[in-house]
């Protein structure tokens, strides 16, 4: 109860401060990019998660780069954790229907992969919160999604990675383009 009161007080203070700023000034305020540091995201989240999934899903540099490109394009490397106007969630913007399908039709009950994934799930969180706030779990599920694809992982070149992402994550009917994915990869991962 005390925390709720403090939170309400904070909102009242913030609302009061906003009224002190003239509206025309707010029109020119740009929200800074709030993405993850790419080196830290790779070394602290992506690589350890991929290595934890090994040997059930073999670790590779191609998988690591593909996940970096996917996160860079889909959420601007963590800027957006809930899709604007859509259902996708987390740093990789996985749709809940895809998440449910992986568990229902691909991850075999009792398998070692099933066990490893369940170790990553926070029982305190819903599926929604595990995808949005649990970076290890979201990374593992993104890798499982790509692992389900029959086509082998691409070469570790930006163009090959972007084409693979378009075909197997965004799909040919999706709004994203290879050129957009390349631009976001360059900006958020190599920038």
Describe the overall structure.
The chain starts with a helix and ends with a helix. Helix 3 packs across helix 4 (61-75), helix 4 (61-75) crosses helix 10 (178-188) and helix 9 (158-170) packs across helix 10 (178-188). The chain has helices at 2-20, 23-26, 38-53, 61-75, 96-105, 112-120, 127-133, 135-148, 158-170, 178-188. The model is unreliable at 1-32 (pLDDT under 50). The protein is built from 10 helices and no strands. Helix content is 62%, strand content 0%. The protein has one domain (31-188). 28% of the residues are buried. With 191 residues, the chain is an all-alpha fold.
Record keyword descriptors for this entry.
191 residues, mainly alpha, 10 helices, globular, disordered N terminus
Number of domains: 1
| Shape label | globular
Report low-confidence residues grouped into runs of 5 or more: 1-32
Relative helix content? 55-70%
Number of strands: 0
Assembly classification? single chain
Which H/E pattern describes the elements? Answer: HHHHHHHHHH
The share of residues in extended strands comes to under 5%
Structural class, by secondary structure, is mainly alpha
- Rg, Å, rounded: 19 Å
What is the number of helices? 10
Mean pLDDT: 85
Topology readout:
Elements: H1 2-20, H2 23-26, H3 38-53, H4 61-75, H5 96-105, H6 112-120, H7 127-133, H8 135-148, H9 158-170, H10 178-188
Helix pairs in contact: 3-4, 3-8, 4-9, 4-10, 9-10
Provide a short characterization of the protein structure:
By secondary structure, this protein is mainly α. It has helices at 2-20, 23-26, 38-53, 61-75, 96-105, 112-120, 127-133, 135-148, 158-170, 178-188. The termini are far apart.
